[in-house]
Amino acid sequence: MDTFTITTTVTFHPLRVPPRCRKPRRVEETFTVTTDIPSVTAADAPVACIFDPGYQRLTHDETDEIALRTFDGSFYIQRRDVNAGDEDFPSERTWESRETDQVAAEREAHGRLWKYLVIDGKVWETIGEPYYSVNTYGTGNNHGGTGLSLNLLSAGQDVSSLDYAATELEAAIDGALEVAEARRDTEYFEHIRSFKGVNVILPEAFRIIPRDMRKTSKEAEVRVVADAMSAALSGPLDREKIRTVREALKELEDIMFNHGIDEVSR
C-alpha cells in the first residue's frame, strides 16, 4: 500500500538541569518525526453511504450529496477539496507541543495526523459511524414531542435501546412511532414518517449491531446473571453471598434499563 509521508518538526519543552545548577528548568528542544498516511484508490475505499445535501454536521456545502467512504473498518469524509501536498496539507510542517516528554510529544504529533486518509490524491478525514436515535422532549401529550435524529458515533460511545444502526431505517421509524404513540405525541407522527435518513450503499461496512440483535444478546446476558444470582442464594446465606446478590441485582437493573428490557423469560 502506498503512503503519503508527512515530516513534522516538533518543538517541546523538557525539564533539564543546566550546567552549575541544581534545579531543572524548562528548555526548548526540537526533533523531527515522520508519519505515513495510507494513500489508496477509490476502489480501495468504496462509498458506504450518502447523505442528503445540507446535512450541516458534516459540511457547510448545501448543494451536493455527501459521501462517506470506508477503509480498514473506519469511515471517512472529504470536508474540503484538498490535495495531499498542497499548501493546506503540506508534507512538511511544524508542531508546538506543551509536553515535557519527547515520547509523549511524538505520540501527540502522530495523533494529529492518523485521522487522515488520502484517496486518489485527495485528503479525507475519519468520522464516526452514522446511526439513528429516537429523541423525546418534554412530558408528552404534544408538550415537547418525539423525533428521530441522525447522529455520528463517537470513540468509546455505547449505543442505547433507543439507537438504531444506519442499516435499519424502517425499524428506527417504527420505533420512534411506537414511542410517540406511548407518549401521545400525535402531532409528531407525520414528521417521524417523513424522516429520510441516509442512503446506505455498502451495508457490510457498518459495525453497529442492529437493535433487535443487541436486545436478544442482552436478554441472554440477563439470564446468565440471574442464574448466577440464583446459585449464590442456594444453601446457607452469609454476608458475602448477600453482597454478591446485591451486586448482581444492580447489574441486572443497569442492563435492563439501558437496553429497554422489561421482562425476560427463563
Automatic annotation (TrEMBL):
It comes from the Bacteria. This is Uncharacterized protein.
